[in-house]
Amino acid sequence: MAGRRIIKDSVEGHSEMTNHLSPDEFAEALGINPATVYRWLRQKRVRGRRPGGPRGQWWIPATEVARLTGEPAPRAISEKEAASYLDTLMTELRTESEARPSPAGV
To answer: Is 58 within 8 Å of 22 (Cβ atoms)?
Structure first.
């Protein structure tokens, strides 16, 4: 699940919000229908924000997942951490493929 979003506040001079989920991502994290998330946002059962004004995209703090489920919120990782993790995975895959005997005739 993508737990990290950086969005620009188009109304108040480009302040950044991190660790927010879209309603679809939030629904996926909870295993519910996105329509339920939108209803909960309107009913204020879930905290959310629309930086672009009343017609803007909803963004929900990742901590709301923890509040509703009692489980830890999805952990956001930095771009540097993500790149390092991918490098590690690629190295492991290369090592595995090099160690595997090649099929006959290839």
So the answer is: yes
Q: Please choose, from the candidates 22, 15, 68, the residue with its C-alpha nearest in 3D space to the C-alpha of residue 49.
A: 22
Say how far apart CA 30 and CA 84 lie, in whole Å.
28
Q: What is the pLDDT of residues 28-75, one digit of tens each?
A: 989 999 999 999 999 999 999 998 888 889 999 988 988 888 876 556
CA–CA separation, 47 and 60 (whole Å): 6
Q: Which structure tokens are listed for 95?
A: 């090592």
Dihedral angle sign, alpha carbons of residues 54, 58, 61, 64: positive
Alpha-carbon distance 11 to 20, whole Å? 18
Helix (H) or strand (E) holding 79: helix 79-99
